[in-house]
Amino acid sequence: MEPPRNLDADNAPSDDEALLDPSEAAEIIPDDPDHPMDSDDNDDPPPDGAQEQEEIPLQNDSLAHFDHHTDSIFCITNHPLIPTAVATGGGDDTTYIFSADIPSPVLPPSYESSPSTSRSSIQPIAKLTGHTDSINALAYSLPHGAYLLTGGLDGQLRVHSTTDTSYPLLTSTQEVPEINFLAPTSHPSHPNTFALGASDGSVWVYTIDPLSDPANPLQVLQAYYLHTEACTAGTWTPDGKLLATVSEDGSLYVWDPFGEAATAGITAPSSSLGSQALVGLTAADQRFAVEDGLFSIAIAPSGAFAAVGGAHGMIRVVGLPRLGTASSTSTSATKSLKGSGAAGKPKGGRQIGGPISTSGSTPGSSSAGQAGAILASLQIQTESIETLSFSSEHSSLLAAGSVDGSVCLFDAAHRFALRRHIKEAHDGYAVVKVAFGSGHSSSSSSSAAATASQTASGSDGRDTKLSSSRDEEAASWLLTSCGMDGVVRR
């Protein structure tokens, strides 16, 4: 018997019959292999963690450069009589001294027909070692720059003589964990005297006198211990008689290291902490309190008030005692301040008590005036005020540089009204230094180039001239600003 057949399979068309007949095609498209597109290589995403590189053309119009440091540079200063003699200190635990006396060309290098692509660094005059940690502070003594002072995060204070180009070491001492600042006084009766602030909150006043005691040339005049946290900044009044310091604990103290205020009859209130300071304001006073501390200070050219800057853009302006020229230090007061040597370590300043005088002041006289009064509270910038500077007594401008990258100008003659807020002074990078200076002297310009103290910066980087309406000569002034972006702007 024949097996049954699958009729569906017999009737199914073959594979060849299922294909389209070539004669029925409307158009035949030839084979064309893939070709890479021009943008294929550019569209590929960068490898993980890599960023697309953007080429930015840079132009260097500087006259010269110094690049012998092998780590960050933390401080820079110049000689008071020879502005082109520059000292720098950095994270390589080294201090260099070099000369910035470079001939100025008619045109900057970018205008040359064949500009040089490389040039050698300025060679140092001297290289100073001996610190075991970063150099955090530098200062030349006043008035003649006879000594260069170096302070480090190792707590060392080292004194070098400038009478020889090798800057030989005169003496050194270590009384504190870290040195935050060095500030020489301009007092004519106390040459080669300076103050330092330390990380433990202490404030020290030293004098250098190798003639009176060759075995102990560095002598302690005063030491103060009222700050409870790191002493972050300090400065002297323009006459060099009073010292003002601020701290991370939010306190401001004004000291009388030479006893001249006491001699003039200006005394601190009996309620002051330890009665060591003529003026003492702390965070306990809510009108003065700045949460998270104070970091900068500047005193007006008149010596009438100080501005202190701290966290969150806060600025406080405080009145200071006025010491007239007629009340100079008495002979007995001067003799009592002869240093006892670094080993002496006095435990406090001159003890002065009694209520602050409220008598009015006249030219050549001394008065407490508005000492300790809070004259203004300012807050325009959003982050810490790292640097403050007053202009000349004629123009009465106060400049403030902030971590938010901005610079503010306040008019001290008109209740500290805001004159200008340069929001993008350094494109969001912290402003670490602002300072005023005259724009007329070439020597002062050389000094400013070394100490970053002669320029003013607008958001567009163009020169900003600040004129005094009260100055009979209508002299223009420049403000320098330096930022963490590595830029010095004028």
Can you describe what's shown?
Helices cover 7% and strands 31% of the residues. The protein has 490 residues and is mainly beta. The strands form 7 sheets. The protein has a 4-stranded antiparallel sheet with strand order 1-2-3-4. Strands 5-6-7-8 form a 4-stranded antiparallel sheet, with no helix packed on it. Strands 9-10-11-12 form a 4-stranded antiparallel sheet, with no helix packed on it. Strand 23 and strand 24 form a beta hairpin. It is globular, with a radius of gyration of 33 Å. About 16% of the residues have low confidence.
Chain-wise SSE layout:
Blueprint: H1 7-11, H2 15-18, H3 40-43, E1 73-78, E2 85-90, E3 95-99, E4 126-128, E5 135-140, E6 147-152, E7 156-161, E8 169-174, E9 179-184, E10 193-198, E11 203-208, E12 218-224, E13 231-236, E14 243-247, E15 252-255, H4 260-263, E16 279-281, E17 294-299, E18 305-310, E19 314-319, H5 331-336, E20 374-379, E21 385-390, E22 397-402, E23 407-411, E24 417-422, E25 431-438, H6 442-451, E26 466-467, E27 476-483, E28 488-489
Antiparallel strand pairs: 1-2, 2-3, 3-4, 5-6, 6-7, 7-8, 9-10, 10-11, 11-12, 13-14, 14-15, 15-16, 17-18, 18-19, 19-20, 21-22, 22-23, 23-24, 25-27, 26-27, 27-28
